[in-house]
Amino acid sequence: MPDHTYDLIVGLETHVQLSTETKLFCGCSTEFGAQPNTQTCPVCIGMPGSLPVMNREALQLALKTAIALNCEIPEFTKWDRKQYYYPDLPKGYQISQYDLPMSQKGWLEIHDPKGRFQPKKVGIIRAHLEEDAGKSLHDEAAGKADSRIDLNRTGTPLLEIVSAPDIRSTEETRAYLTELKLLLTYLGVSDCNMQEGSLRVDANINLHIHTPQGKVPTPIVEIKNLNSFRFIERALAYEAKRQLEVWQQTGRKLGEAGTFKQTRGWDDAQGVTFAQREKEESSDYRYFPDPDLCPVVTTQAEVEQVRAGLAESPRAIRERLEKAHGITPYDSDVIAAQGRPTVDYYEAVAKAAGDGKKAANWVTQEVLRVLNEQSWTLSQFPLTAASLADLVKRVIAGEIEITRAKEVFNDMVANKRSAADSLQALGITKVDLSELEAICKELVAANPKIVADVKGGKQQAVGALVGQAKKRNPNANPNDVRRICLELIEKM
Amino acid sequence: MTARSAAELIADLNARKVSSAELTKGYLDQIAKHDGRVKAFLLVDPAAALARAKEIDDRRAAGKPVGKLGGLPVAIKDVICTQGVRTTCASRMLENFVPPYDATVVTKLKSADAVLIGKTNMDEFAMGGSTENSAYFKTTNPWDTSRVPGGSSGGAAACLAAGMAPLSIGTDTGGSIRQPAALCSVTGLKPTYGRVSRYGLVAFASSLDQIGPLGRSAEDCAVLLEVLAGHDPRDSTSANLPVPEYSKTVNQPLAGLKLGLVREYFGAGLDAEIEAAVREAVKVYQSLGATVKEVSMPHSKYGIATYYIIAPSEASSNLARYDGVHYGYRTEEKAMLAELAAEQQKLEAAKDQKKLADLDTPLVRLYRQTRAEGFGPEVKRRIMLGTYTLSAGYYDAYYLKALKVRRLIRGDYDQAFEQVDFVVGPTTPSPAFKIGEKSSDPLAMYLEDLYTVTANLAGIGGISIPCGFTKSGLPIGLQMQCRPFDEERLLRAAAMYQRATDWHTKRPKLG
Amino acid sequence: MSLTRADVEKVSLLGRLRLSEAELDKMTEQLARVVGYVEQLREVNTEGVQPMAHALDMHNVFRDDALAASLPRDAALANAPKRDSECYRVPAVLGE
Q1: CA-CA distances (angstroms) from residue A92 to A85, A163, B321, B395, C15?
Q2: CB contact under 8 A, C41 and B325
Q3: Does the structure show a pLDDT above 60 at C47?
Q4: What are phi and psi of A271, to 5 degrees?
Q5: Which residues of C touch B367 (CB under 8 A)?
Q6: Distance from CA of B387 to the nearest CA of A (A)
Q7: pLDDT tens digit string along A270-308?
Q8: How many whole angstroms from its chain centre is CA B215?
Q9: Is the ipTM of this complex over 0.95?
């Protein structure tokens, strides 16, 4: 079998739990982690006679997201029932949106700070609201062949965001999800906590295999319920390899009789995708308009109102930081990725210090290092922006040399004190030039071998004198020492 | 006592001419006497009813405020949830279902100080027009106990006719209040969709279902509707409109009344005696100053076909929740699993791979077996029909098409109401039939809903009032339908007729 | 479109009803008659007619995002045919 090159074609369906207090159609709490079946009521457990009433906030959060994803917001949208039987779906249908979703035709721009792919817009086919199902727990401990059903999650509001099949690599997949997650976080519409299931991904994947006869598409596979970035990347890599092998063995391609969209799961322990048991009938969801819920009409004025109140997007922030502070896309990406508080902190430092690039270095390297080491959030970080800016300014002014400045920074953090106090505590003062010249004269006189080396063309030999100078006075600026010594040697 | 109207009884209660306990006891005695034959009630709890009556009496005696119904007993169709009281929908599926909450109408009845005297029999999940589809027993027509009382609110109508309650509440999805009211010679009102909250009404077809009052007269219905009606934030489809004081205005006559006789209602299939009685009733209105003109509703003939697509479609979805997991009946699991294992062994032995692949999983079998045992034949038929009409490839041809014809039916009404105040005709094409007469032919049974389904499809109000009897003594109902939310005038129009006639005062002779 | 026994069998799975062979026969015959009857709608011209899914023309009915009391767990589980102290129980759903 010859090797084949192929294009990886990926589309993602992302389910985002919206940050409402209560469920989509009843007043039960959406809080994670409660004891099983303690957050349910007649409505969310689908008791006979109960009726849904829509949560206004859920629609607002969905509108925010859809508008930030550059979607069109149709004036009219409605609720439909998606019907299937499963024990974690107590009504026997999920309230969702079928043919007239609340938003459609948007895009999300993705980029790679490392430049592995060109920035591109991934299409958003639609984003629609729906209710979540409950949880099935398999009770192996009890040694019984029963599953246990917890309906706390039933009815939690989800926004399903469906991307176009515009994604071409695992890097792009990661970039899309990272950017989407960041956007949702900035908008404040979801906590995006993947461990708690607030962000879940289904991936549609196939290959366009290059052959002498042109590109051949393989049948599309949907991999369900990928709940970590690592799972997604591994599953896509595995599935690409599997589809290529199947094609090489069978030659089956998309749209051929007998091929249909297959649903597979991901087994992370085995590192494989596996076919999920599915009968043909199970895909007949018999959607129809939910007669218990009224349609929703959204005017253009309402859309504009939501748009006006939107938080700045990560993309806009990155562009602004690059433009206003002259920093690299790499730095703007690192800063924006930390979230809005870090952006604000950085900007305050940059403004006060008067040097955006140096401020960016300090924030992305030193501040983030400390946060990471200490597992802190920015709010726990002891230095105010003004305090850090003060240090940066002193460095720029040449008052402190850079290696000592990091010492000062660590001291400021450890002892929660100002730059001035740290300098004093560490005994750091700027060495007087005449004192420095005196030290250098002594050193040059005492080290004829080094002088000879330098005169012989080995300029780097002067480095040894720098070390000696620092021993005599730790505050000696290495650059000054080097410059003075070289001048002295030249005159000799 | 049981001959007096609800309005009179409330006045008597408030004047302390009779106590709620005495009144309740009186109706309980009637139940004890007649319900063995009529079988209108699925559940009666005399002790609870009397305790509640006494509590209201005590409150009144202490000079504390008492609600609008003042201790009057009211019977409730068993499709409406009552907290802590079994609510079966006349189905095996909900044989042991005890709701943890009250329907909004029950809350309203309780705060109006009604005494809930019992839960009435019905067709299973309100599907049917004869109450023969109850999983428990068949209710009989008090006028001829060999005949059906109509349905699905058969118990609700029969208990009134037999004097076992002064008021009752029913539900109407395609005629289920009006048709039994006609067949039992009582007055029954289906309000405009959205007039009464559906919260706590176990859904049959959500876009058609509506709760409404049944009573001896339009005046009685006005008293009860005033309590039931109103906006409910728990029902998204409930209309946010003020509730008129129906009971205060019901006896004010309407001047310049314009009635529309629907040409299409008087065609083939209409019983001659019923036609005569309806035309006679129209003459009574003319004598009261009404003008009558013929109106055409060209799409009314498609009402049954439209209804029997939309109602089963919604029902198939609404009844999906009865799966033996969260509440209600579940098949005997061990036997079910053993049978499934045996089937599997047999297929494996025969190496029948195709059938093995098609064999139900334990979970699917649990659902299918539970639903096969928990639902009766009519409910199964409608689930099957509705599942089919919503399924891939058929949705446009059936369900979507029906929604469009539904709009045309509504358009017919809108046009008619530009010319007339009320649309008038028979409630049913024929009088009460013999028990068992139509149970083998579902389609023949469906055609009985001819005159009533269109009001549900259009979402408008309708009332059935007694307007005579056949030669063999079977009741005949006159149906009047009104513009959306025009119940206030509809009740006044009905009361006008009832002041001029005495059909509604006739009572059957029960041994 | 005439309704076949195979259709009825398929629908009985979709609707999660177990029907015996005899019931399938009877259901096919009864449903075929009803489906035959409702097909008269085909003769109605519905071009340009908006479907009417709701009886009332209402829209934008919302509730505020305010917490309401949930049911006590015992009350929520009280009607379940099979349960333990915390959950509803069903035959294993692994792999389905």
Answers
A1: 5, 27, 5, 19, 10
A2: no
A3: yes
A4: 70, 35
A5: 16
A6: 8
A7: 999 998 866 555 579 999 999 999 999 999 999 999 999
A8: 13
A9: yes
